[in-house]
Design goal:
Layout (H helix, E strand, L loop, with lengths): L5 E4 L13 H17 L6 H4 L3 E11 L8 E11 L3 E10 L5 E12 L10 H6 L10 E5 L2 E8 L4 E5 L10 H6 L4 E5 L16 H14 L5 E6 L1 H13 L3 E7 L8 H17 L1 H12 L5 H4 L1 H12 L2 H12 L16 E6 L7 H10 L4 E5 L6 H4 L1 H16 L8
Helix pairs in contact: 5-6, 7-8, 7-11, 8-10
Bound molecules: D-malate (MLT).
């Protein structure tokens, strides 16, 4: 459901000596727009009715252009993330007269009761804002000061799944559900899915450190790492930093090279678009390139699934991931040394972001590496060809650990 747009006028008493809408006044206007939105939906007393108060835990505002007395600003609000007791709203303010983007903001709220204790987000609010109303009991582990959401299943040798940009752990749903005989672990990287999204602190090395800390927290000494695309960049960084713990490596639709100068500029352009126009801009730019098909009709269910993932990614996580990828090291010099661990390179035959020819070259540069090309898949085989991808992984895992039959889960 689209929430109502709210028009508010700028008054002289909200402006500074030069007539600009004062930065502190934006806070009031964003808040006024939120209450007005609730008044037109479930009612301004929707929180009161539930005995809940939404306490602001974090505010981020980007000021893009000046606004002046008499300007009418149009506020749009979207729920970008919600957990059991917290939720995040993104708001934009545009001048109605010329559609200039004036400011964008992100607010993180924690719902508390009168005693200050965290309590669930009222379902009326979530439903009105278009979020999923099923309570989320996502498992969370705090690493390096950041809460990571994760799915786990099964028992046996550990497999750590690392999703790409700007996606989340549900990319691996089929593999986590079906790869019986292994301890499957699929976290949301910091800044994505339901993990915390700090404003700063993103690099490929930080993601790799988070994963090492996650394994520590779970008491796991070694794992097979399976990284797709940006997840592959991270898996290579893990191999650089803590290879001893890597029992095997799956590099899926990924590359070892760093970004070209043009590619780096593209990351900055994409980050600016995300800041200004939010996740819809990212989804629009990426979706047509991600699959073997090019339209929602030809791709079917995976299109909607991936679109929902992109749209739910917090903007700081998107901007952080783009800077992390822009600045990532070139790993080509390390490939010859990877022969000491079992490596499988996987590619969607019709990947248009990292073509299968690049996957062949990657496999050829790693002594002993296997290559599997998945027919009918583009950049995201785990959702485009889930059963085939799971089988390819199962064969590789059985080469390392022997047949899974007899192992639980
Ligand atoms: C990904 O799927 O993770 C990204 O497309 C990788 C990239 O942009 O380099």
């Amino acid at each position: 459901m689209a929430t109502p747009e709210i028009d508010l006028s700028v008054y002289p008493d909200e402006c500074d000596a030069f007539g600009h809408l004062n930065q502190a006044s934006f806070l009031s206007l964003f808040e006024r727009a939120r209450w007005e939105m609730l008044a037109r939906g479930p009612g301004m007393n929707v929180f009161d009715r539930a005995g809940v108060w939404p306490a602001v835990r974090k505010t981020t505002i980007d000021y893009h252009a000046g606004a002046f007395p008499g300007d009418v600003l149009r506020f749009q609000q979207a729920l970008t993330h919600h957990g059991r007791t917290s939720f995040t709203m993104r708001q934009t303010a545009r001048r109605v007269r010329d559609d200039t983007l004036i400011a964008t903001a992100e607010f993180v709220f924690v719902c508390i009761d009168r005693g200050g204790r965290p309590v669930p987000v009222p379902q009326d609010v979530v439903a009105f804002m278009g979020g999923e109303t099923t309570p989320s009991d996502v498992r969370r582990v705090v690493v390096n000061g950041v809460g990571l959401a994760l799915d786990t299943a099964g028992a046996g040798p550990a497999v750590l799944f690392i999703h790409g940009y700007p996606l989340d752990r549900s990319l691996w749903r089929h593999q986590v559900e079906q790869l019986h005989g292994y301890h499957r672990i699929a976290p949301d990287l910091r800044g994505m899915g339901r993990s915390d999204a700090p404003d700063l602190g993103y690099s490929i090395a930080t993601y790799a450190d988070d994963l090492a800390a996650l394994l520590d927290a779970m008491g796991i000494d070694e794992a097979v790492l399976c990284g797709i695309s940006m997840g592959g960049y991270i898996a290579l960084e893990c191999a650089r930093r803590w290879r001893r713990r890597i029992r095997g490596l799956v590099l899926m639709d990924t590359r070892a090279e760093g970004d070209s100068p043009e590619g780096r500029r593209g990351r900055d352009t994409a980050a600016a678009a995300a800041r200004e126009r939010g996740t819809a801009a990212v989804a629009d730019a990426m979706l047509p390139k991600l699959f073997a098909g090019e339209t929602a009709e030809t791709v079917g269910a995976p299109w909607a699934q991936v679109e929902a993932m992109i749209r739910a990614t917090p903007v700081p996580g998107i901007v952080g991931a783009l800077s992390a990828m822009r600045d990532r090291p070139d790993s080509t010099g390390m490939l010859s040394s990877l022969g000491e661990i079992p490596v499988l390179v996987v590619s969607g035959e019709e990947d248009r972001i990292i073509p299968a020819t690049q996957a062949r070259a990657l496999a050829a540069a790693i002594p002993g590496a296997r290559l599997r090309v998945i027919a009918g898949a583009g950049h995201l085989p785990p959702v485009e060809r889930p059963a085939e991808t799971t089988e390819v992984l199962r064969e590789f895992l059985e080469e390392i650990h022997g047949p899974a039959q007899g192992r639980a889960g």
